[in-house]
DNA sequence: GATGATTTGTGCGTATGTATG
DNA sequence: GCATACATACGCACAAATCAT
């Protein structure tokens, strides 16, 4: 048995990559904000080399955009972008629901159910106006379905897609009752997964995302 | 009228990125091959900085893999990887076929038809045993459908997916008659796009990729 | 294993480009 | 238009990790 262990130094490149990514996902950096590689290096007290590499990776991932004059900004999707992304999500997440209906073990189905129960609890008792816990739990429902689909490529693509629109996730609940609709839609998807009806699970997932998109559209058109 | 123009210098990072990418897609670098950033920099007579950034981007794209000891290798998909990728392609390219059936202009439909005609010509008269021209034309058929779908996100995802398995595209024709089957399948998809039957176009695209995958499976199991 | 060659990780300097007063 | 401030693109140096002998 090891009594102690030596930690490998984590590469700066990785740390910077995750640090910037987190700042975007958490909303500290907002769509359209500018970034400066030199300033980030200064703030983190490291040289610019690892920062440059992290920025390239994030650009490739789509979270950062670098224009022809090398100015770096956080990706700010247009409404058309969001529609395109949702169209892809519908195709891919309904595939995910189908595969999970096919493959999920009883333990995994339990896990999905637990998530739904927690969501319901937050709906009934949580007083946080920002609904952070609820939003996280709803997000988790989608993540679990992808996880249980046993398709790693699907998972990778959807993870990337998700991060591109994560900033807009809180907008979804500006509308009254929307939270409850989401809950019932999730419940319906879950029921079909549990019954192992692949086609219905896929269909309901697609519909669910469609209403989600309708919602985002409305919010966008009323001036964000 | 300008009598001359000044060229902006193309960034080394971009050139290196495309250069390595091309070497992989063209098969000069094969799955599993090792790469060394220092050597590439020496060969191209530039410093390692732009090479490093290009490598990070290609890793993010999935074409290169960097292990825990920083060794760089060309991505070598397992059979499961290929199956996962095809499952995603089925979902996404059938979406592409559906959208193209919906949106394609008569000019775009003509363009698709031209590609099919060329394919048929190559099938009948081309004597190249590697069928390079035919393979390119078939690939172009898929690319055009994605192009005409008017969904840029779909295009981006599929471009990346495609490059991950492009090395295996030539394997598809080891079987006799496979080329003709592909041609007829493409023709059937085209017919439905022209008739604007979105669902049938999507369905046939999915089936087409399914038989494609069956083929790759067979080739893989018989020892590559 | 010990040694030397090679490679990667990081810091930093210089040239060049861009915004702004 | 010019000067200043500050950004990025690239090259290079050196230490640490890794590989071959």
Keywords for this structure?
224 residues; mainly alpha; globular; 3 strands; DNA-binding; 68% helix; homodimer; three-stranded antiparallel beta sheet
Account of the protein in words:
The structure is a homodimer of 224-residue chains. Chain A is globular, with a radius of gyration of 20 Å. Chain A has helices at residues 12-25, 37-44, 48-61, 79-103, 106-125, 132-148, 152-165, 178-194, 198-221; strands at residues 34-35, 64-66, 72-74. The mean pLDDT of chain A is 91. With 224 residues, chain A is mainly alpha-helical. Chains A and B meet through helix 3, helix 4 and helix 7 of A and helix 3, helix 4 and helix 7 of B. Chain A binds a DNA duplex (21 and 21 nucleotides) through residues 9, 11-13, 36-39, 41, 46-50, 52, 69-72.
Q: What level of helicity do the residues of chain A show? A: 55-70%
End-to-end C-alpha gap of chain A: 57 Å
SSE series of chain A: HEHHEEHHHHHH
Q: Most extensive interface, residues per chain?
A: A-B, 29 and 29 residues
Topology:
2 copies of one chain form a homodimer.
Chain A: H1 12-25, E1 34-35, H2 37-44, H3 48-61, E2 64-66, E3 72-74, H4 79-103, H5 106-125, H6 132-148, H7 152-165, H8 178-194, H9 198-221
Antiparallel strand pairs in A: 1-3, 2-3
Helix pairs in contact in A: 1-3, 2-3, 4-6, 4-7, 4-8, 4-9, 5-6, 5-8, 8-9
Chain A binds a DNA duplex (21 and 21 nucleotides) through residues 9, 11-13, 36-39, 41, 46-50, 52, 69-72.
